[in-house]
Hints:
This protein is mainly α. The chain has a single domain, classed as Hypothetical protein af1432 (Orthogonal Bundle). The protein is built from nine helices and no strands. The chain has helices spanning 5-14, 27-30, 38-45, 47-61, 67-78, 99-114, 125-134, 142-150, 152-161. Helix 1 (5-14) crosses helix 5, helix 5 (67-78) packs across helix 6 (99-114) and helix 6 (99-114) packs across helix 7. The relative contact order is 0.12. The model has no long low-confidence stretch (mean pLDDT 95).
Amino acid sequence: xxxxxxxxxxxxxxxxxxxxxxxxxxxxxxxxxxxxxxxxxxxxxxxxxxxxxxxxxxxxxxxxxxxxxxxxxxxxxxxxxxxxxxxxxxxxxxxxxxxxxxxxxxxxxxxxxxxxxxxxxxxxxxxxxxxxxxxxxxxxxxxxxxxxxxxxxxxxxxxxxxxx
Length: 164
């Protein structure tokens, strides 16, 4: 899948909104230092649909079609879908998952793995890449994983530039 530079630009600009739906998740769940209970996890998973709904509302109020909001909505709703159909919220699989969301899925997991959280230490870049590669064909689009591997040094440089 070749992406033109305009599409790449729109995806990169809209990607930061991927978790906007988390504004609708109670802080007691969002900021919980330990493992979420099954009920809390079900609530947390609603952030994908909540984000897409908020962006849909913004898109409807827009005076003209917005590619930015179009991609942001796709990413927000589908960045937790998995290549094998076991993700959420819609259990999409394979190429039914929008490409922008398949790209975001890898970026989001990479960021989560290399970032320290109250409930886990940060992983090394190499261990994070190995984990993503292990998820190729199940969790992630294998073509996106291949592209991630090919541009790994650039991804690390970006991660270091924007480290918390």
